[in-house]
Amino acid sequence: MGLKPDKLFQVAETNVVEVVKKNILSQEPSYQWVIIGLQKDTIESNGLAKLMDMLNSDSNKVKWNLRKATLEESVIVDYKRKKLNYNADSILWDTTKIKFINLPIKFTPPKPEVE
């Protein structure tokens, strides 16, 4: 895939919609893609709920995909979190696990907080 830890960045849950608006919706329609790789198969997140609302809105034509992260993506995120030097050539990859898996992801919008 050619991913590099220094090209990954974390976006605060409160800013994820704005980041997509500025970096995706500003592109011409054929380049408006959002692909979200999740390390868990079940997720509950206010930020993701807001992003899904925006992506599903009829007001834009963003193409999107929610999928399980690949082995390489998970390894790179782990290296980034641990602040380790990453060299893809030095890792003994399990080639039976390096593939895009199209497993179902369960997204449950969070329950609204009662004030």
Overall mean confidence score, pLDDT: 81
Number of helices: 3
Arrangement of strands in the largest sheet: 1-3
Helix percent reads 25-40%
Largest sheet: 2 strands, parallel
- The radius of gyration computed from the alpha-carbon positions, rounded to a whole number of angstroms, is 16 Å
> Could you tell me how far the N terminus lies from the C terminus, measured between alpha carbons in angstroms?
45 Å
**Overall 3D shape:** globular
**pLDDT below 50 for ≥5 consecutive residues: which ranges?**
none
- Write down how many β-strands occur, each being a DSSP E stretch of 2 or more residues: 4
Which structural category fits the helices and strands?
Answer: alpha/beta
What oligomeric state best describes the polypeptide chains here?
A: single chain
Give helix and strand order, one letter per element, not per position: HEEHEHE
What portion of the residues fall into strands of 2 or more residues?
5-15%
